[in-house]
Structures are given as C-alpha cells and as structure tokens.
Give the backbone structure.
Amino acid sequence: MSVKKEDVEKFLDGNQDFARSYFDKKLKPGAVASIMRIPESKVDVDSFKDICSVEEGGLFYDLITDMQENVNMEKVIFKILKRISALIHADRCSLFMYRQRNGIAELATRLFNVNENSELDDCVVPPDSEIVFPLDIGIVGHVAQTKKNINVKDVTQNSHFSSFVDELTEYTTRNLLATPIMNGKDVVAVIMAVNKTNGPYFTDEDEDLFLKYLKVGSLNLKIFHLSYLHNCETRKGQLLLWSANKVFEELTDIERQFHKALYTVRAYLNCDRYSVGLLDMTKEKEFFDIWPVLMGEQPPYSGPVTPDGRICNIMNAAADETFNFQTEALDSSGWTIKNVLSLPIVNKKEEIVGVATFYNRKDGKPFDDHDEQLMEALTQFLGWSVLNTDTYDKMNKLENRKDIAQDMVLYHVKCRDDEIQNILKTREYFDREPRDCEEEELLEILKKELPGPNKFEIYAFHFSDFDCTELDLVTCGIQMYYEVGVVKKFQVPQEVLVRFMYSVSKGYRKITYHNWRHGFNVGQTMFTLLTTGKLKRYYTDLEVMAMITAGFLHDIDHRGTNNLYQVKSQNPLAKLHGSSILERHHLEFGKFLLADESLNIFQNLNRRQMEHVIHLIDIAIIATDLALYFKKRTMFQKIVDLSETYEEQKKWVDFMSLETTRKEIVMAMMMTACDLSAITKPWEVQSKVALSVAAEFWEQGDLERTVLEQQPIPMMDRNKAAELPKLQCGFIDFVCTFVYKEFSRFHPEIQPMYDGILNNRMHWKARQEEYEAKLKEMEEAVKARQEAAAKNAANSNSTSGSGSGSKTCSIC
Ligand SMILES: [Zn+2]
C-alpha cells in the first residue's frame, strides 16, 4: 500500500503535536538539508515553518557556540539579524550602539543593512564611517530614550521619524520595527528592522518573532557590554594602581612624576598617543602680577577653559576646526589625529594645573563615557598627586630656609680671621694669614702658644678650669690632639684644628652650667681616661680622636634646660627628635660644624674612616642622655667582670680590641663618666660646680613656674635650695658611684675618680646632717615656742576669760 503525499500532509496537519515531537527527534537542520539535497545554509525556512523549532535549536546552538568561542558581538548579532530579516521578511536590519560623549548620549551605526543574503564584512561599519545621531533625532533615538520597542506601520505618520539617514543613504523607509537592548536600566543598543517585503507593514506575529530572536541577541550584547565594562574597570584599577606606584616613587618633580605614571599605564590607556601639558604652578603670583587685576585693567585669570568647562571629547578630529592644522599625516609613520579626549588636571585646591590629552582610541572608535570616566579618574589622581610635589616644594623651601638659618648660625659660631689670631698668631709672627703659611710655620707658632701638657694639668683627673680663661681651654683642647698624636697621623690641617676648637667653644651658649667650660671638662676627662686611665689601649688612634672630639662637642648649643622641659615647652627640638632630644641636637650641631670644610678636622680621612668616626661620635654623644645610662649599666658591669677573668693583660687587650660592641659600650660608659666627672673633683671644685648645676636647675624651675605655670620638682625649686646636700647624696648613691667604682675596678688607674666621689659624698653627707640637725633644732625651737604659747594662752584664758581676738574662737 502506498501512501500519497497529500495523505501525509493531511495527517501531519491534523496531528501537529505528533509531527512536532517526531521531527524534534528525527530531524536536524543537516537532515533537512540532506533530504532537500541543498546546502544546510540554503534550507528554506519559509517552507519549513512547522519544523522551525528543530532548526531554531540548531541556530541557537550555533550562536551559543559562537559566543563561547569568543565574544565577537558583531558576528553573533549579524547572524541573528540575518535570520530575523528572513523570518519576518524585512528588507534590512541594523544595530545601533548607545554611548555617551561629553555627557551627551548618542547612537552610532555598528551593523548596517543586514538582510538574508548579506556578508558580515559588508555590514560591519568601520569606526570612521559611522553614522552618529543624537537621541532627539529619529525613531531609533526615540526608542533609546523611551526604552520601549515600537512597530511603526507607516513612518510618515510618526512624528519622530527623520529622513536624515534615508537622505544620506538614498533609501526610503516606509515601516519599521525597533527595540532597545537593555542591561538593567542602561540602554546598550537599539536594533531595527526596516520595510516589510511581502506586506504593507510588520504584523504582530512578526513583532513577536523579532523580539523572540532578539532575546539571544540581547544576551550576547549584554555579555559584550559587561565584558567591556569589566575591561574598563580592570584598566581603571591597573591605571590607578600603577600610577600610585609611580607617583609616590617620584617626589621631586611633577613632570617626571606624570611621565613615569603615564608611561607605566600606557597599555591600559587604550589610545595611540597621549600628551600632558602643565601650567607652571611653582611660580607664585607676585604683587606686580596682581596689580593690573586689582586696577581692573585685566580680567582675573581663570585657567584654561575646555568647550564644556571640563572634558573635551572630539570624535572626528578631521572635521573639527581645532585640528585645521592637520592637513596631512603628522609624522613620517603616517599618523593622524582621528579622535581626541582632553581633560583638565585639577589639584585638590580646584586649580587647573595642566591638561592631559589622549589621541585615537586603539580600536578606532571614538572615546566614550567609560573612557572619559577612566581618564578622569587618572587625571584626578595625577592632580591630587600634585599636592605631593607641592608639599615637596614647601619642604624644599623649608630646607632652604633652614640652610639660610644655618648659614647665619655658622657665621656667628665660626672662628673669625681676627679671632684665630688669638692663638695662631701668624700676623704677629710672620705678618701673614694662616692660609699663607706652611704647616711647619703654624706648628712653630703653636709650640709657643699652646700651654703644653703640664701648665694646666690636662692629664690629671683633678683638673680644674677655675684658673683658665675660656681661650686657655681652647688651647688646652688643641694641645690634647697633639698629645695623642693624631694631628700628623691624620693630616689635620692645623689652621682647621684651631678654627674647629675655637668654633666649638663659641658654639656653647653663655649659660650657668652647660657652657663651654663644661664641654671642655668632658673632653678633658675623656682625654685623661684614655691616657692616664689607660683606656686608650683598646682603641685605635682614630677612635681616640673621635672620642675626645665627641667629648668637646657633647653639649654644644645647650639651652640650660633639660629634655623634659623641651617637651613641656613644646620646643621645636622636641618635635624634631622623639627621644634624647637635646643630645640629638648637640650631635646634629657638632656634625653641622664638621660639615664645614674649614672646620672639618677629619677632612683627610678616607670614606671608611670618616664613617667610622661619625658612627662613634653618634653613639658617644647620644650616650650622654642619662636616661640611657641605666640601660647600659649591667652590660658594662659584665665587661668589667669578664676583664677580671683574664690574668694576662695583653690577652685581654687583644680580645677587647676586636670586640666592637664591647668597645662601644665601654666608650658610652666613659662618656657618662666624663659628663658626671665634676662629682669626682676635689671638694673645692665640686662644691662650686654643684652650685652652678643647681643654679641652672633653679633657673629652669623658675621658667616652669612662670612660663609653664607648673610647680617644679624639688631639685629645680630654688625654695628648696637647702635640700641640695641631700639631693647630691642621693645622686651620688643612685647614679654616680656605680660608674666610678666599676671604672676603678676595670682600670686601677682610674681610682682617683672613685676616691674623689667618696670624699665628696662624705662632705655632702656632713652638710646634709648639719642641715638636718639645724632643721631638728629649729623644729624643736618651734615646738618649744608653741608649747610655751599654749601654756601662756591657757594661763591668760583662765585669767581674762575673753578671747585674744581670734576670729575662729568658738563660743559654743
Ligand atoms: Zn654634659
């Protein structure tokens, strides 16, 4: 039995459910194609309306594969538009992309005139031949604005229709379907189908098909859009990250800073070239610049103005009169400016400091709002970073100011040419300036003018400066460098040595205790500890020279007040240095003098030697902060203990000479021993010096009372001056004794210092007891008087009965 074609048709028409499930199972587009003996692409969809679900499946599979392979948006949308145009019999379909430039939205053709026979390459619109129209022109613009799809059955009846594109392309639009593609609330694109070929207009069924197919299309456009946004965000992140990196690396100069930042992020800029123009912001306005403005002769300067005030995004440079100069390629590579994005660089003070311009987006498309945002973030960041360089400029200015201040200080502190003649009497001897004399000649003078080792007993622990003038002390100081043999050994120019010592003496302020005399005494004690105390054996000559120098410098420019006072009075020094405030200042001051070539006694050392000297001076001067003394006590004691385990002195010295840290600890403790050495001097000296120390403390106490309005501690309170002996005993017991006891245990040669302190302790104790006895006597006298008065009062009360006039007398 044969089945006729009509029967099958009749059966299938009558059993559509069966037909659908049957073809779903059995037929693929390939099968249909092979049945029809035509290529798969030529399968006539119109004739296979009933099996289009099968074919649809194939199409969607195809599209999704395309999307998976790469997000080639144009290719996928092209396929969909091709299919739509066949399905709904549209003459042509187009894709318009939505974007914003200069804050204004616009639509640009991306796929134009797609129909069922089109090839992709013919329909993709290259960036330079885009048709761009704002949203207020045409139905497509209207769709983007309303975000609603539209079926226009007769364009002549639609008020939004514009013949602008028709005229441009010599075409006549009669009817159309258009729909926006959305990503959330944002329009991404608009798709339009134009002119129904087999009817007067698109039917509702056409519209349904159109929208159904575009669902896949919109998915793809969304992916494309998101991936673009993601790319922008990534670029933005990288841009800022890298710029930050470069910006903070470079603080010196804004131009270098910007260049470095932009060069690093150039890959993310997504443009051919960029340029940055900077205004000269370093120049401050002078009064003669402002006068003409104040006089009304000139308008005030308001910075460069971009067309819309902020951003300038030019799509077609060739058509813009700004680029009239571009009549041919701008360089030998044939490069021309196609589109431009230009933004002002604004600093935190809202001043325009420059303009950044980016040329030709890499994909040839114009810069859009995402580029604008991205570049704005970058330029904003660069603008803010200008503040860094501003701060740097300010710092530079401060630095310059400091230099000037230092220059002034140096002028006053530095030994003058007339002053040096007080010691290095070249004018008297040779009628010449020191610089015109040979070293031999200078030595000849100094041999006569310096006091020599014995005149002032500089080798003695009991040395006293009482019989010396300040100038004598300068000559004694110079003498010591000769005594330890470093002048020749380290080629110290003698004029420099004299000027240095003289300047150090001038660097001390004329205050009650921490004056040049104290500075000298510390240097002298260091010299004596090293020589007489035999501590020199652990140190090289260079180290000896550094230590004596540190002694002389250790309190230079002292203000007569202690570290705590600097903090309480908010002295800038306290802000500059966190701890050991004054000590750090003395150190800086000392190094500042040494930085002057005419004072640098270390000028002929090599770099390594110089570094070593500075290292030792650093440690030595900071070590004079008594607050640090307690930290080094046990370490020093252990070294002394260790020294006692050595029977042979030579072995101990050999061991110590290589022990850098132990040597530094001993040196630090030597500085303390020197600084406190007044306590070891003969009683006549100690009693006087102790008074001057106390006097300086009392002066600080007065300042605390008057300036800070605070009650000073007893040590600084002149009303408690009588307690001085007690305070001295406490100071000897808790601070000083340990130092000299340990040093005399370390080196018996130092015993005189320990003896000295014991003797002074005895004196102070006697004074203390004397005072306490007197106090007790006075208290007893007061008590006796009170008792007598009480007795008298009792007697008179019993006689007179009335009060003696005391107002507090109670009657009740
Ligand atoms: Zn001191």
